[in-house]
Fold these 2 entries.
Entry 1:
Amino acid sequence: MRNKTLSRLLVLGLGLFPTVLHAQATLTKEQQDVLKGLDSKSAHYGELSRQIWDWAEVGYQEQKSSALLQDELTKEGFSVKVGIAGIPTAFVATFGSGKPVIGILAEYDALPGITQDATPERKPIDTKKAGHACGHNLFGPGSVASAIAVKNWLQKSGKSGTIRLYGTPAEEGGSGKVYMVREGLFNDTDVVLHWHPADRNGADPSTSLANITAKFRFRGIAAHAAASPERGRSALDGVESMNYMINMMREHIPSDTRIHYVITKGGEAPNVVPDFAEVYYYVRHKNRQILVDIWKRMVKAAEGAGLGTETKMEYEIIGGVYNLLPVESLSQLMHKNLSLVGGVSYTAEETRFAEKLGESFGTNFGAIRKPGEAATVSPFANKNDLLSSASTDVGDVSWVVPTVGLSAATWVPGTAAHSWQAVASSGTSIGVKGMMVAAKSLSLTAIDLFKDPALIQKARADWQQARGADFNYEALLGNRKPALDYRK
């Protein structure tokens, strides 16, 4: 344990207090048994999540995190295939046989450049270069917990069917699932379930932004910046010229577009004309075709920057993901089970942690949220056009197999994703409790699908109608191999 606050929260939150508020009066005996089984192992799964939190391995470098989850599933009798789709840290774990085949997604990559101890005050960890600011240390173990719970139910009930856990690396910009989709690994799956850490509990049929990411590289001619600048051609000028044109372009593209960039390489010394520079771009839009059109204009801007600065430009598409395709009937099923499970109940210690953390949000943002909101489940939004401003490679999965997800309150209400506050919450019992809410909701939903084939038939009919009869999947990142070194 890194500090006394973390240790104290884990002891208070795991074992002496219930992890969630259950609606026991409406649960069947069978459902109660499943949830009790998960409760009995919550401390164990919490330890797995904290180990992955401490490792904080970034995309395609999650060797230890992936191996930890594989080992857990192997010990539980799953057949595990490793290194699939050309990705060393990707795996598929399978138990059972025959139809239906229900898949569960698991993620475990961290974000570079943000570190934080499990404290409610800002406290970076200087020995680290990454942190779980999106909570994927919880995502992986929570999904594994669910897959094992469903496996136990299959054995006890004698039901036929297959439960499959997909270990999916590099969600953060690496598009790991896209390569798995492209490899056909979901072709025989009937329904896929997933979840994501958040500051609330909900299962709305929301969509997301499609996304293309790329690194633009400019190569120039080095020279002494003072003695012979006329002999140089600055690669950094190429990057800055591209950025200037892209920023002017923002006025002339749909206002709901999102474009962000970082200069990853700008030169070594001011007195040397940089002969190499690189900028890393993300562009997002809810409409995939509009996204592609904007992307083409960005490439033209890069080409123009190269011409204008007499530098050579080349680019590499790093990732590309579809928008989520919601299936409302599946979302209703997930919402029903999430409501049965209930939200996260804080201990007095956790409440103090949450209140202290909330002081860092600012009055215009999360400070207006109350810690007690973690105990509630958001009302179901009966619309299929709800939009998340984030992007995820789950989107590609959702276009090749009916897919449904939920968010669970692993973070203090008001916490923003990709923040130090998210890292802090993800490393405490608050995060583990939210993780177990997700594991239970996924498990009950999977069991419903195994028990009632009509639910799957309805979901697949709705899904087919939503994606259209003429749909043909083509990955936005083309035929490139996995960008295994994109975080190096």
Entry 2:
Amino acid sequence: MEVFNIKGIFVKDILNELAAQFKTSLTENLFEYKLELPKSLGEGFIQGINFPNGVGLLQFKGKFNKQIVFNFTSKKVHPLKFFYCLEGSLIHSIKPDGERRKIQQYQSAIISSYYHFGHIYKFPIDEYFNFQVVEIDRKAFREHINYKLEDIPYYFYKLFADVEGVREVFYESNYTLHLAQVIKEIEEFDKDNLVRVNFLGAKALEALSLMLTQYEDDLKENNQQRILRKSEFEIVNDVENYIDQHLMNRND
């Protein structure tokens, strides 16, 4: 197992530290940074960007050929994290002896650690992974909004007002069809320069809004929830395909 300790909490610092430890180079385009994984560890890339409003976006995509752990060790307040797992899985904990939680395909999670702890990402061996993280620097975010956090519902207030990182949060769910489409649009967008930066900034906020809508929906009783999840759609689609296939076979 190889452990990479990371002191930074913002995209540029994180990727610069990893590039130094991987002994590889880092590319930059209008403050979006990309790091190709060295062949000695596997294949794929990590890329991301931070915006002035406190919102950041990171993507991890590839496959490691050995057990890899990213240990985020900063004693500063870490960003509030919104995870979206498109493929594969990831084990998350906030300290070495802390509870280990698995985030899998079609799952999303809202995660906040205590200020004196960090985040630990444990990647599987020889398993393709693809997940995105919208990160919120709550102090910067609060300075850029034009409303008072005290005016929003308390369940949102608890997430965004904790600028000192005194509350641990781990909320896990299956993400929605709409959110799945936004994530796909972020991944597939192929424009460059200013067009790309503006697109990513807008889509990161859209993904955040959809995640909060999903979070609000999950707080309701089961019979009052109205949003279809991606995993539920996949099950329905599989059942429909199964029925269609068997009907075709019977007609033959």
